[in-house]
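Hi, here's the filled form for the chain we discussed.

Project: internal
Contact: R.S.
Residues: 107
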Amino acid sequence: KIEELFLGGSFVGAFPLRLVFIQTVDTNKLGVSVGKKNIKSAVIRNKIKRQLRVASKKHFLSLLKKLDHKYSIMVLYIGKETPNPTALDKQFKLMVERFGKKLLDNE
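And the returned structure, exactly as it came back:
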């Protein structure tokens, strides 16, 4: 599934975040990833992942309930520095808006 997502999926970005998504037939799925190459410390990577999960629950749930189709979504943190939680939340909100706009443009 992840390979299909990256090979055939669409991308939306708001630095330091990138969202990859593909339409599926079953349920909505969401994953988060922080690269080991950019963030060396596992503690900080896990902290960023927790922040991304909280932001996704805050911003994605309402949008996904409104949509007719189901999606597999992967949120990637591509920055090299530890993010400020408020700045990360702001960028996440921007990325979700772009995601919604891209879906409306495709339909």
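Let me know if anything looks off before we file it.
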